[in-house]
Structure formats: C-alpha cells, structure tokens
Amino acid sequence: MATESIRISHTEALDLLRDAESNVHSFDARAASGSHEARFFSFDSPQPVEAQDAATLRSCNNAQRLIQCDVFIAGSGPIGCTYAREILEKCDPSFLRPRNAVYMAEIGAQESPIVGAHLKNAVKYQKDIDSFVHVIQGALQPVSVPLSDTHQSTLGGNSWTPPLNSKQNQLVISGQNPQQARGTNLGATAVTRAVGGMATHWTCACPTPHSEETSESPVERNELDSLLARARELVKVDSTVFDESIRHTIVKNILTDSFPNRNVRSIPLAVQRHAKSSSGFVTWSGSNTVLGETVNDPRFTLASEHRVTQLIVHPSFPGAVAGVLMRDLKTNSDYLVNARVYIIACGAVCTPQILYNSDIRPPSLGRYLTEQSMAFCQIVLSKKYIQSIENTTNPLWQDLIKQHRAKHPLDPLPIPFRDLDPQIMIPYSRAFPWHAQIHRDAFSYGDVGPRSDPRVVVDLRFFGKGDIVSENRVDFSNTEPNKRPEHTDLYGMPQATFHVVRSDADRDRDQKMMNDMTAVANSLGGYLPGSEPQFMEPGLAMHITGTTRIGNDRKTSVANACSKVWGFSNLWVGGNNVIPDSTASNPTLTSMAYALKGAADVIQCLQC
C-alpha cells in the first residue's frame, strides 16, 4: 500500500531541531560507540506506526525523518567529494561518529554502477567519441529559458490557445522563465543533476591558472600552488597519457613550429592509461576518483535523488545553521538533517539558489558573475601532414602503420583506429589572455558525423575571460522567507534569472581571440564544412565563477578565504562559484584547491 508523503514545514523543522538541540551543542564524539548509536535515527523509509490520531502519526513520522550526522554535504561532484574524503581521512576519528559521520545529498540519480564515475569510460564511447555527444546533451538541463512565442497563426478550428491581451497569453512550461530577458541571458548554461555532477561527462582538463587568473584570490599564490598540487594528485592529473599518439604528436609539432613562443603543450588531463595500454583505451577521472575508498567507509552516506530545499538558521543563534530540510524526490517526503557542519557544493547556480531559498542573502550573493566566451571551429588536417605520417621514419609509427595496413588494407589513412585523439593546449598568457584547446573530444555539439573521417578532424576551442562586474549576476524569483517563490524551476526551487552583459573590453578581447583561433586553425588545415569559426551561445563554456566568491571583504564576497560564509560559524560553500577571479582556463582544479583549504578549516572546527 502506498504511503502518504510527509511534508515538514519550517515551523515543524524548528520544533524537531529544538528536540535534537542537545545533540548539536553537547555531543561528545569521543564517547563510547554505544552511546552514539542511541542518538541515530534510521536512514531507511519509516515503518508504519500505530497511532490514535493523525497528529500523533505525523509527529512520529516526523521524528523518524530526523537524520543526525557530523557533516552534511550538498552535492556529489568533485568539490563535495573533495570535502568528504579530506574530512574522513584527515579528521581525528575520535571527533567523528562511528557511522554516518558525513552525509552527502545529491538531487540526481546514480547513473553508473560505480558511484560518480565518468560515463565516457564505457568502451562504446571510447570507440566512437561522437556518440558521447548525445549522452552530454541528455545530461544537461537548461537553467533559464525565456518564454516562447506561442502564437500559431495557422492553428485552426476550435483548438485551445492562450488568451490574447492577457498576462496569461504565454505558456510557462518546461521550466521556462518569464523574467528572463534574452539579451542578458546565458542561454546555454545548464546543470547536470546526477551522482558525480558534471564530472560524469567533463573534459577532465586541469590547467594551472595564470597569475592574472588568481589576482583577486585571498589565498597567497605559494599556498594556492601547494593546494593545486594536492588537487592534481586527488583527481589523478597526467600530461603524458597521449604522448605516444601519432595524431597528438603531429598536431603538437605543427603548433610548436608555427607558434614557437606560445608554450604549446599537452593538456594536463585527469586521466590514466588503461590497464591494458595496447587497447587504446584510457580511464577518465570522475567524482569516484576524488572520493576514492571513502565510498566504502561506513562513516559515509550518500543519498541520491534528494533535493536540498533550505538551510534552517538557528532561531537563537543567527550565525549558526541548525539543520537542512531536504526532500526525497522518489517518495516526495521531507527529511530534516541535523549536523555540526554544513557544506553546500551544488554548482555556480544551485549553491546560491539554496542560500537564497534559506533567506541567507548577503549583498554579493549571485553577483560578480563571470562566464567565459567561446570561439569554436573544426578543421580537417592538411594532406601534407597525413603524407608525413605515411612517410614517417619513426620505427614505432612504422610498425603501428604496418599492423594497421595488414588488418585494414582498404583504409586510405595511415592512422590506426585506436590511435588516441590529440590533446593540446596553448595556455593563457599576458600577450594572449585566453585559453586554447586544440583536441578532439565530445561536447554537447561538434560531432563530426559521416561528413569526414574523425581521425583527421581537430577541434579548436578558445575560452575568453570576462571583466568582473558587480551588476553581472544571477538572481532568483522574488519570494518572502519560508514562502513559495513566484516562479520555480523544474525541481520546485526559486527560478534563476541571468543579468549578464559583456563589456567593450570583453568584446575587444573576444575579437582578438577569434583572430588568433583562425591563425591556429589555418596552420593545421581547412575548415570542416558547417564548423567554420564562430562564437558559441553565451554560457556554453559552463565555467561560471563568482556567485558565492571568497574574499577578505564581506561587502564584496560571500565567504572568507576558507570558503566559510561570512557571519556563520558552521556553513561553507564550494565549487567554481567560490572563485573570485575572471578566468579563461578550466576552473575545476582551482575549485578543488579551494575545497582542500576549506576542508582543513572544517576539520579544525570539528576538532575544537
């Protein structure tokens, strides 16, 4: 028999937290494990309870929906997993509960048998990278979609249409946003709701940020470099995995000769050679890589398809979070989590969204937003470069080509089918303030299809930074505290609306970047028809930063250098949203570095 979903109101949440308050403020983690267990509530679905009336039943059900832990983490991407692993590995165990010390909630489902794994590791996608494009497209959910024009002049008969000359003359469906102006939208911005987050399909590029990309950081560069090095180890960054590839070497040599002063190099990628390197497969890092063995730690719990609705601020201590209200999306029932520390790491849009919905609204929340511009094209390698492979004097290449010809005598190309794709970058510099990737990979666009052999196609993606402007922001549907917002997204949270405009300086830089990309492209070959040089839809980079930026001034930042939210003793934020700088490079490694610093601060809080 179906169980009626149970909702917990804000008032009921406060009542439950008052009942559990002794556990929050007087919990002795070094007591015997038996005394700990007495304070735990079941994580399973509540069992039927005999009750004399509905009020008693509701009270009992609510009590069973109170979950207690030491650390609550919202978000299961690389940042949330960095916090979880660091805390469980580095914190003195005597300060943590023996079970369920870290409770992680993820709004999406687990889509891989391996928790948080990169989906591109499947053999079929490594054999056909273009087929992964559709996986990415299916994973991405748009953030803010302006209303569509619903007028259909050829719709005849008595079919229903929205009323004319009325506030209801446009349809608000599929998460469309009536508040979004098209001219200030980041129309291609999307989120991935899944265990592992964006890391289930990311490119794994982990370049080191240039000094100009960290000029606003409150963390000293020497310390940041140390944190970046630790982040590389955590996500297993390697710049050599593709060095034996014929195409990688050819493209790298062409660019090095054509642009000798640009520091052309292999992209530092979070990737490892497959155990059987002769297979031509690699293992891409995902959130599972960051999490490591923590996933099997009995002190760790992951709840998928649970929406974090709001943080409950302590009624007597405004500088402390007392609990988190979350909803099991499968049963539509609410749960209340009572922890000592709270970490929100749900991405650059959903993190400020949760804070906003919790009536935690510092002046800088959602502001100082920067997003990278993108220029894109695809080329087909010049005949002379293919001929140079055919005429190679490299004995290793000669052997590989010979083996390939023996198996596939009709193939017109001297490139083995399992030759790894090129993965080259031209890093950001003062003279060329953009980040360039010359490679082959799957995005939500750019599949080659049957137009050309993918072995001779190379993608060029150039990423440009944007000026830091307070007015560039994401805000959320107006709502009074504890009341339903006027407009909500598909998951019932306040609708995000973008107000982002590129400055004249941004546009000037973008044009120079486009000119640079065409010069690089022309050194390699001719444009693939349909993929000539173009600027991509704003937001497509999906590298938004700044919406909960860290800093030394609470007037212009949301959190301090340790990512602790100003004015709170037990609330941290994590993700690209904490980066206070304008960046052109891929930001994930930098976000992980800040998360490592934040985790050290959390551990100090837990052990004090």
TrEMBL record:
Its cofactor is FAD. InterPro entries: FAD/NAD-bd_sf, GMC_OxRdtase_N, GMC_OxRtase_C, P2OX, P2Ox-like. Its EC number is 1.1.3.10. Gene3D superfamilies: FAD/NAD(P)-binding domain. Residues 284-370 form the Glucose-methanol-choline oxidoreductase N-terminal domain. Belongs to the GMC oxidoreductase family. Residues 487-595 form the Glucose-methanol-choline oxidoreductase C-terminal domain. This is Pyranose 2-oxidase. Homotetramer. Keywords: FAD, Flavoprotein, Oxidoreductase. The lineage of its organism: Eukaryota, Fungi, Dikarya, Basidiomycota, Agaricomycotina. The keyword Oxidoreductase applies. It catalyses: D-glucose + O2 = 2-dehydro-D-glucose + H2O2.
